[in-house]
């Protein structure tokens, strides 16, 4: 857990969304712990992880919200979308239904985040080539049509997991550099951390209870 | 026999005391079971008081009594899995529930139990089409399966699903969210400072969602702790798990207040439940809090919390049944107004502003005699359940 003075210059908020059992929590675990969690249980509500990574020479803290995939939990997970700078939208390359549901996830993500939110499509379980049910080209085309970044990855082998988080972070950082992402906007999902320690609460956090899931 | 009682002063005397207390309790439970009619009130007290029901053998006899389920139930037909709307989802969740089985259990045995787990869930859902499966439900069912075996577990889970868990099994999560709304008012009553800090951090209550809807089965790794809590919850009002959740937060007061006042940080801290909690102490505290601040007293507040959010019609309906000339509501509005005016400058200054009122509102928790409080908690089950929620007409 970070304490002031900060050893990173930005916080990027990420969300991970997608159907049940596509491996959202495993991707997060692989990314934060560099390990595959074979007996990863289902997620209830939201879980949370962080990691500091270097992007274009800057230390950036990723603050990642991993959401439950079951439809009924969307009522509570939706409020965590707000103010996300990046979204990992995950499907399982061996289960076509999880790919078919992407448009619904994408609609949610678009409606509940801001126009600058970087969305990356992740085809997980790429190690299970023999059971592939969705081709790379097809998903690539879907991503292009919808302006998404795209990667196939494997939480099991770790292939492309690092890159999935990194590619989105690069894009977000690029948006900051070229000024298309306004850091002062309330829901940019990015906090600049000047080197001087700064107390108090953060202003660009989501406030789930205002949306109905809180106390 | 395993024991979860851990405190003893001198090794020999302590152990002696503990053994004799335990023996006495076993005798009391046996007595309560053998009289006719069975002394359910006594069994409730045993399930709540220190150590709970002690062993799984005793649980097999007492849990059915607590839920008013006959202990001899008929074997049921297996449920057809083809074309079952819930099967795929249940299968997916059960397949990745390996952690919920005792470590070291042979794969074959575990796989057999997983099949039974699927059958129980599908059977209950089929018999009760009004119930909707949620992820986490199987965390509860597996606990019953491991203690009671398939047949008895089915009967108890069915009863529980139509009573204690009923609100979680609605088509939507509105009622679940409503129950979570009890958390902050309880915390506020006991420790306004922690309450205000959490409000300031805007952490919400979702960190407690998995605790509530799995009765902590999803988050505690030691099965003995899980069943001890189940003893307690089965003997109490359906809202007791939310009191227990509040007690955990309150127990971690120092950690919470030392945490960076930031939504993500506080959520992260609270959602990582410590595995070495002093369960017996926390159980008796939760019982105390229930008696001091019964759900009926908190209901209006829980409902007004919702009103700042996208309130649903159901919640509104629930709230309106509870409404009286409402000074609490007005007071809260004034406070909110004042906070709003004073927080114009910046976030951190609001902390200072909140300071004095925190001190004034601090209520010291009265220490009640354990037995009295727990007896009353058990008694309160009968008295208050009907007051607060239309769905929870306990055990006809």
Oligomer: heterodimer
**The CATH C-level class name of chain A:** Alpha Beta
Q: Considering residues with a beta carbon less than 8 A from a beta carbon on another chain, report the largest interface and each chain's count.
A: A-B, 42 and 56 residues
C-alpha-based Rg of chain B, rounded:
22 Å
CATH topology of chain A: Rossmann fold
Low-confidence stretches of chain B: 1-8, 306-333, 343-373, 378-396
Helix content of chain A: 25-40%
Major sheet of chain B, described briefly? none
CATH superfamily of chain A: P-loop containing nucleotide triphosphate hydrolases
In terms of structural class, how would the helical and strand content of chain B be classed?
A: mainly alpha
Pattern of helices and strands of chain A: EHEEHEHHEHEHE
Structural class of chain A: alpha/beta
Q: Report the total helices of chain A.
A: 6
Mean pLDDT of chain B: 80
Q: Can you offer a commentary on this structure?
A:
Chain A: Keywords: Endosome, GTP-binding, Hydrolase, Lipoprotein, Membrane, Methylation, Nucleotide-binding, Prenylation. Chain A: Residues 188-215 are annotated as: Disordered. The complex is a heterodimer of chains A (215) and B (396). Chain A has 215 residues and is an alpha/beta fold. Chain A has one domain: P-loop containing nucleotide triphosphate hydrolases (Rossmann fold, 3-Layer(aba) Sandwich), CATH 3.40.50.300. Helices cover 27% and strands 23% of the residues of chain A. In chain A, strands 1, 2, 3, 4, 5, 6 and 7 form a seven-stranded mixed sheet that branches. Chain B is mainly α and 396 residues long. In chain B, 65% of the residues lie in helices and 0% in strands. Chain B is built from 21 helices and no strands. Chain B has helices at residues 11-34, 40-48, 56-66, 87-95, 107-127, 137-148, 150-162, 174-180, 183-190, 192-201, 209-214, 223-235, 240-251, 253-258, 263-271, 279-292, 295-307, 313-322, 327-342, 347-361, 370-388. In chain B, helix 3 packs parallel to helix 12 (223-235). Chain B is globular and about 55 Å long. The two termini of chain B are 35 Å apart. The relative contact order of chain B is 0.10. The chains are: A alpha/beta (215), B mainly alpha (396).
């Amino acid at each position: 857990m970070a304490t002031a003075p900060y050893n990173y210059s930005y916080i990027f908020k990420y969300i991970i969304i997608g159907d049940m059992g596509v491996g959202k929590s495993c991707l997060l675990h692989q990314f934060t712990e560099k390990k595959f969690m074979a007996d990863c249980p289902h997620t209830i509500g939201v879980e949370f992880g962080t990691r500091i990574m270097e992007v274009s020479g800057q230390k950036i803290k990723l603050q990642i919200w991993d959401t439950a995939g079951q439809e009924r939990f969307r009522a509570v997970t939706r409020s965590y979308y707000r103010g996300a700078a990046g979204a990992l939208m995950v499907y399982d390359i061996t289960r076509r239904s999880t790919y078919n549901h992407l448009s619904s996830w994408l609609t949610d993500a678009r409606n509940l985040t801001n126009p600058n939110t970087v969305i990356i499509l992740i085809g997980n379980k790429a190690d299970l080539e023999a059971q592939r049910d969705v081709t790379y080209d097809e998903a690539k085309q879907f991503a292009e049509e919808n302006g998404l970044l795209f990667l196939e990855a494997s939480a099991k082998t770790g292939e492309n997991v690092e890159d999935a988080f990194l590619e989105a972070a690069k894009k977000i950082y690029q948006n900051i550099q070229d000024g298309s992402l306004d850091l002062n906007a309330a829901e940019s999902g990015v906090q600049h951390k000047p080197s001087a320690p700064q107390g108090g609460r953060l202003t660009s956090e989501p406030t789930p209870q205002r949306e109905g899931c809180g106390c | 026999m395993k024991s979860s009682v851990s405190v003893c002063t001198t090794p020999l005397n302590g152990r002696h005391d503990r053994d004799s207390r335990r023996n006495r309790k076993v005798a009391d439970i046996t007595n309560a079971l053998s009289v006719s009619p069975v002394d359910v009130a006594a069994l409730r007290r045993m399930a709540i008081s220190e150590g709970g029901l002690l062993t799984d053998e005793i649980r097999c006899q007492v849990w059915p009594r607590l839920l008013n389920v006959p202990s001899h139930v008929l074997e049921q037909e297996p449920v057809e899995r083809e074309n079952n709307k819930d099967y795929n989802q249940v299968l997916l969740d059960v397949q990745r529930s390996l952690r919920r089985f005792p470590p070291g259990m042979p794969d074959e045995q575990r796989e057999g139990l997983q099949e039974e787990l699927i059958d129980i869930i599908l059977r209950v859902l089929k018999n009760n089409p009004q119930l909707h499966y949620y992820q986490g439900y199987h965390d509860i069912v597996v606990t019953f399966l491991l203690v009671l075996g398939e047949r008895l577990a089915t009967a108890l889970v069915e009863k529980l699903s139509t009573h204690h868990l009923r609100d979680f099994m609605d088509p939507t999560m509105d009622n679940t969210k409503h129950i979570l709304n009890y958390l902050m008012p309880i915390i506020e009553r006991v420790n306004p400072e922690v309450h205000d800090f959490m409000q300031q951090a805007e952490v919400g209550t979702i960190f407690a969602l998995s605790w509530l809807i799995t009765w902590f089965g999803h988050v505690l790794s030691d099965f003995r702790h899980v069943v001890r809590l189940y003893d307690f919850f089965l003997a109490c009002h359906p809202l007791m798990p939310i009191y227990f959740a509040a007690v955990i937060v309150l127990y971690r007061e120092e950690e919470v207040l030392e945490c960076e006042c930031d939504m993500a940080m506080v959520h992260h801290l609270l959602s990582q439940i410590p595995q070495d909690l002093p369960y017996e102490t926390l159980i008796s505290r939760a019982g105390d809090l229930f008696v001091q601040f019964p759900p009926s007293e908190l209901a209006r507040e829980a409902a007004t919390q919702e009103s700042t959010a996208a309130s649903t019609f159901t919640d509104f309906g629930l709230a309106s049944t509870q409404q009286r000339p409402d000074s609490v509501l007005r007071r809260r509005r004034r406070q909110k107004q004042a906070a709003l005016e004073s927080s114009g400058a910046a976030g951190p200054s609001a902390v200072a502003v909140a300071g004095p009122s925190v001190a004034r509102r601090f209520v010291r928790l009265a220490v009640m005699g354990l037995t009295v409080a727990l007896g009353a908690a058990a008694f309160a089950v009968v008295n208050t359940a009907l007051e607060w929620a239309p769905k929870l007409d306990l055990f006809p």
